[in-house]
């Protein structure tokens, strides 16, 4: 046991080395960090897309927040109301008041004013908790950002150095090595970072629970599922504040382990072509569920699926009346096991009577026991968030900001492509179709996307692409119309005879009730496509994807993630097992002696 302890101590000294030659300088944006090569602290270069998108959202959030503040102040001035000047009375924050005034406009279904929050922020410094008095007007306070899982601190440093208007960034981690690395990187980035960024060794869940409604922005970017952090996170954000949340457990969210997904997120996933968008909507529904427990609700700003993860950006508000609308935003999904047709079943509905609104259960069933098209059974999943997942006004503002500051975004090409595609999506159409999947069901050749889009548009319906899948198509056309279009296509492009019990054969045996018009429609190409804007870019380099968890030994099996060079480079260093594993192995041996 003495030898094992000595080896562990020697490794600890080596890992905490202060020799600059032991570190590698990594620069991203305006921030630089020092990293050791032993995977002690997690860092993934691929997440530059994630960090750039977050910075773009933060910049837009700051400008929108300032505009809301100005509108609220102008409204107060117009009403002739005087601002409170008593320093002993803590006023309601501007964002909370702006939320109350603008909730009906931004979330139209609510018929009551937003209620003031019951719990005011506690134990906040006077500088950040009160508004600065200007010339007859109060100025909006700078943002306080919480990065709940900081690791090396790169994200927090980029926020502090690149986003104007941020007053403080609190970077947390419950790993001592990560906190030491973060503090080292804060000093390495100079005075601006040292003044704005604070690093603490703490459990993010406990910290957020003990700081309710204190942070304007909370960023959750865990390794895996964020489910254990959501309950405390929704309590830590101020009214009108921003919650940014990443989930990388895509195998769970996309239907690989449905029972695990239900235990973590409260929804059952389906394995359809739209599974990645469904993952976004499951995550949004889960955040809404946690927020509802505290009379709060979410308003999605933008929700993206990139690389190997999903990330959502939502604003949080407090209102018991608006919270009642949550069941109207949730739906179950029925997916046919034969032809992959899907239908949504709303969880609830409203009934208006005598100038009042009553909330009633949704009408059911949305589908019969057997599919009308192919005669097969349905799988049922959900509930998912079926309301819009993007605010198109925000997306347009973000895209304009990114294009005007392209030199300040290392991943400009990728995030501008994603934002361009999102700006063209139909906002009120949940999930999407796959043209190749439709053709696979019928065993026919595939029409071009332009021809299929034209047929849908000529039939009187809307259609768009999706940022999730280059082959995905969003449309408000019912599945009856979609299959009629495909029947008409097959009439002009015959297929080989298939067994009569196959889903495609059953579908083609029916005569189309709609005669499709495949003449090219003017709107068959989006603005981005017409201008030949790149929308789906290849990875910039090989092995662009997830990385092993911090502290995990790099072995040959990680070559597919890191590349042979990285694995060979680590093999030349000391390759001991992680401390926790070594300790578990050594203790039984000592006990036996």
UniProtKB/TrEMBL annotation:
Biased composition (Basic and acidic residues): 120-137, 573-587
Gene3D superfamilies with a match to the protein in the record: N2,N2-dimethylguanosine tRNA methyltransferase, C-terminal domain, Vaccinia Virus protein VP39
PROSITE patterns found in the cross-reference section: SAM_MT_TRM1
Keyword Magnesium set for record: no
Chemical reaction(s) catalysed: guanosine(26) in tRNA + 2 S-adenosyl-L-methionine = N(2)-dimethylguanosine(26) in tRNA + 2 S-adenosyl-L-homocysteine + 2 H(+)
Biased amino acid composition, Basic residues: 545-558
Start-end of Acidic residues biased regions: 87-99
Residue ranges of the region described as Disordered: 1-22, 85-137, 538-593
Biological function: Dimethylates a single guanine residue at position 26 of most tRNAs using S-adenosyl-L-methionine as donor of the methyl groups.
Family statement drawn from the similarity comment of this UniProt entry: Belongs to the class I-like SAM-binding methyltransferase superfamily. Trm1 family.
Protein name, UniProt field: tRNA (guanine(26)-N(2))-dimethyltransferase
Source organism per UniProt: Stephania japonica
Lineage of the species this protein comes from: Eukaryota, Viridiplantae, Streptophyta, Embryophyta, Tracheophyta
């Amino acid at each position: 046991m003495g030898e094992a302890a000595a080896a562990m101590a020697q490794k600890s000294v080596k890992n905490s080395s202060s020799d600059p030659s032991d570190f590698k300088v990594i620069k991203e944006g305006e921030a630089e960090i020092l990293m050791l090569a032993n995977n002690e602290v997690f860092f993934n270069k691929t997440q530059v897309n994630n960090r750039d998108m977050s910075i773009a959202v933060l910049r837009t959030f700051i400008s929108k927040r300032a505009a809301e503040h100005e509108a609220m102040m102008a409204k107060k001035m117009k009403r002739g109301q005087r601002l409170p000047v008593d320093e002993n009375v803590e006023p309601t924050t501007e964002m909370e008041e702006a939320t109350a005034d603008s909730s009906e406009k931004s979330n139209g279904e609510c018929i009551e004013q937003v209620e003031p929050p019951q719990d005011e922020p506690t134990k906040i410094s006077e500088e950040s908790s009160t508004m600065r008095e200007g010339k007859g007007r109060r100025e909006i306070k700078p943002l306080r950002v919480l990065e709940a899982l900081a690791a090396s601190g790169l994200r927090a440093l980029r926020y502090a150095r690149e986003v104007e208007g941020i007053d403080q960034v609190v970077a947390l981690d419950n790993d001592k090595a990560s906190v030491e690395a973060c503090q080292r990187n804060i000093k390495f980035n100079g005075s601006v970072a040292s003044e704005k960024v604070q690093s603490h060794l703490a459990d993010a869940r406990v910290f957020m629970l003990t700081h309710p409604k204190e942070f304007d922005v909370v960023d959750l970017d865990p390794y895996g599922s964020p489910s254990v952090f959501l309950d405390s996170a929704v309590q830590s954000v101020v009214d009108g504040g921003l919650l940014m949340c990443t989930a990388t457990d895509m195998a769970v969210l996309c239907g690989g382990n449905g029972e695990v997904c239900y235990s973590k997120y409260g929804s059952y996933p389906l394995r359809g072509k739209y599974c990645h968008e469904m993952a976004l909507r499951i995550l949004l529904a889960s955040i809404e569920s946690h927020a509802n427990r505290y009379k709060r609700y979410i308003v999605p700003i933008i929700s993206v699926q990139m690389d190997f993860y999903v990330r959502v950006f939502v604003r949080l508000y407090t209102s018991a009346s608006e919270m009642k609308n949550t069941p109207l935003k949730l739906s179950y999904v029925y997916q046919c096991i034969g032809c992959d047709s899907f239908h949504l079943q709303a969880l609830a509905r409203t009934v208006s009577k005598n100038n009042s609104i009553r909330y009633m259960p949704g009408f059911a069933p949305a589908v019969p026991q057997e599919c009308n098209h192919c005669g097969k059974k349905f799988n049922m999943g959900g509930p998912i968030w079926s309301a819009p997942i993007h605010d198109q006004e925000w997306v347009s503002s973000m895209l304009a900001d990114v294009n005007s500051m392209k030199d300040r975004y290392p991943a400009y090409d990728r995030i501008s492509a994603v934002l361009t595609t999102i700006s063209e999506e139909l906002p009120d159409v949940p999930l999407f179709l796959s043209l190749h999947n439709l053709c696979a069901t019928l065993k026919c050749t595939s029409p071009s996307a332009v021809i299929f889009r034209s047929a849908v548009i000529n039939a009187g319906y809307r259609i768009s692409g999706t940022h999730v899948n280059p082959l995905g198509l969003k449309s408000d056309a019912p599945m009856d119309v979609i299959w009629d279009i495909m029947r008409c296509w097959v009439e002009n492009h015959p297929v080989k005879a298939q067994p009569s019990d196959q889903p495609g054969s059953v579908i083609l045996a029916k005569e189309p009730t709609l005669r499709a018009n495949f003449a090219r429609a003017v709107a068959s190409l989006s603005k981005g496509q017409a201008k030949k804007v790149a929308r789906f870019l290849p990875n910039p380099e090989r092995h662009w994807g997830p990385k092993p968890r911090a502290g995990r030994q790099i072995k040959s099996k990680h070559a597919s993630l890191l590349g042979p060079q990285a694995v060979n480079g680590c093999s030349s260093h000391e390759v001991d097992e992680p401390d926790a594993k070594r300790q578990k192995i050594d203790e039984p041996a000592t006990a036996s002696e």
